[in-house]
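Lab notebook page, bench 4
Experiment: in silico fold of construct C2
Operator: M.H.
Input chain length: 178 residues
Purpose: comparison with the prior construct
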Amino acid sequence: MVRQTPDEGLWDYLVDRHHYLGSPWIVGSYLKYLAYLDGRPVACLGWGSAAWKVAARDQTIGWSREQRESNLAGVANNVRFLILPWVKIPHLASKVLALNIRQLAGDWFAFYRQRVFLLETFVDTTRFRGTCYRAANWVRVGETTGRGKYDRYNQRIEPVKAVFLYPLTKDFREALLG
C-alpha cells in the first residue's frame, strides 16, 4: 500500500502515464497499491469509495435507497488497475488482483476504521473483456447505463460498462442491508 508514502507519487506517475484513463481524481476514501516482482513495479491498483448509484449492484444487494445511503461505505470501487505495458507475464493480472484483495479489507479498516464487505469495478467492454476479474472470481452482474457520474441531463455520455462484484464475506448482503 502506498497511500501517504513516498511511492504514492510513483503510482500517480505510472497511472497517469500508462492507464488509458490517466490518473483519477479519487473522491472520498481511497487506497493505492503498487505490485512488485523482483524489486520492480509491475502493476498499480487503486481503490476508492463506491459509486453512488449503480442499478445492477444495488439490485444484486437488494438495497432500498435508504439502505444504500446508510451502507454504501461498506463497498469499495476498483478505480484503477494497470499492468505496466512492458510486463508480459501470463496470468499476472488475476494473480495480482487476487493477492491485493486479500490485503485490501485489512488495510481499509486500518486506514479508515470502516469494514468493507463488497468490491465493485466497471469494465469498458469496448476495450477489455474482464478476463482477469473473471479469473479472480469476480461476478458480472450487469451493465451501467452510460450516464457517468457527472450526468445532469439523463443522457448517455460515457461508454456502457460491465459491472463486476466481488464479495469479501459470505454474508455481505446481510451486512450491507444493515
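Observations: The beta strands are 30-37, 40-49, 75-83, 118-124, 139-143, 161-167. Residues 19 and 82 are 6 Å apart (CA to CA).
Next step: discuss at group meeting.
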